[in-house]
Amino acid sequence: MKELLYRNLLILTLPVFLSGWVACNGRSSQESKIDKFQEKVDEFVAEGLDFKLGKTKVEIVKNLGNPKTIRIQKVPNVHYPKYIVDEIHELFYDGFYIKLYKATETNNEMVEYLSVTSDRYKVKWGLNIGTHKNKVRNLLGPPLKKEKSVYTYQDRDGYPDHVYFYFRDDRIYKIEWEYYHD
Q: pTM of this prediction?
């Protein structure tokens, strides 16, 4: 008799307990899906290329070979514009462009911007030039911002790092990454 009472009590209280637990601690499947998309976005913004690039001009040239053109421009340092002159290094390849910021005081180089316009430069998860925009949405979820022919995604690390997908006839024709540096 006690067994039957405990079983019935469990059957009656378990759904109430579980619904309360989900409401307080659990996440809806929609929230979980958004989190999974954001994890993918974070990874893609940070490491979206499907080949080894490098972090400095020397590493990039070692990995990709000599660019068609290198342009170096002197720019005032953001924090001390009257005293320090830094450099922007632009590397132009066929279908690939890289912009590096070089802090001359520390000799640090940081990738500020990347642009891919050729399918010869492979991108993570097959989001290459020529891929249909539905694949972008299926892998990365809804964009942060959607304009006529551009999807914008942003990572969640607190800095405004972005990736932009440009579409023509619903297919990717350009991908850009912008990285914030202070």
A: 0.80
